Automatic annotation (TrEMBL):
Entry protein name: 2'-5' RNA ligase family protein
InterPro entries recorded: 2H_phosphoesterase_YjcG-like, Cyclic_Pdiesterase
UniProt xrefs under SUPFAM superfamilies: LigT-like (SSF55144)
Any Pfam family matching the protein: 2_5_RNA_ligase2
Domain of life: Bacteria
Single GO MF annotation: ligase activity
Coiled-coil spans in chain: none
Phylogenetic lineage: Bacteria, Pseudomonadati, Bacteroidota, Sphingobacteriia, Sphingobacteriales
Protein keywords: Ligase
Species for this entry: Pedobacter jamesrossensis
Amino acid sequence: MENLFLVCLIPPASIVEDIDAIRNDISDKYKVYVSLKRPAHITLYNPVKISSLEKEKIFFKALENAAFSESFSQIILNFNSFAPNTVYIDVDKNSHIMQLQAQIKLALKPLDLLPEKNNFKFNPHLTIAFKDIKPVTYPLIMQEYKGKNFKREFLVDRFSVYKHVDKRWQPFREFLFNNPNDKPKPLSLFD
C-alpha cells in the first residue's frame, strides 16, 4: 500500500469556478493542460507518499493536532510566475496563513515525510499553469496575464487533504478549525 496525499486550502466553489475559467482559457489558448489535473488549491504541505496504515493514522492525527486556529480572511490577487514554467495567482502572505502552514509543518516534522531538500520556504500561491508550458509560450501567457486585475477574498475555517487516486487528486478529508484556546497543553511536571 502506498498513498499520495496533498495538504492544501481549497477556495469556495464560486471562486474555484472563476479560477477554473482562467485555467481553461489558458489551456485553450496556449495548449497547456497539466494544471487542469489538479484542484484549484493553495499547497500547505508538499505531496507526500505514505506506505503504511500505521503511518497514515499518525499523519492524520498530527493534522488534527495542527487544526487549532482562528478562522481568517484570505485574499488571492493578480497574476505572477516562477519563470520559466509556472504561472499563478498570488496569495496574500498574511500572518494567519503563514502560521497555519508553520503549524502543519511542525506537526508533521516528526514523521520525517519530506527529504530535507524539499523542506521548502513557504511562498503561498495558486497555480494556474505549469509543467507543460513551453519556453516560447511562457512569455505570451505572462504578457496577457501580468497586467490583468484579479481579486477574491474568502473565509478560511478549514484545510483539506486530497488523495491521488487513478491519476487524479480527489478530496479525501477536511479539518475544520478548532478554537486555539481548546488545544490540549503538553503535560509538565512544573504546572
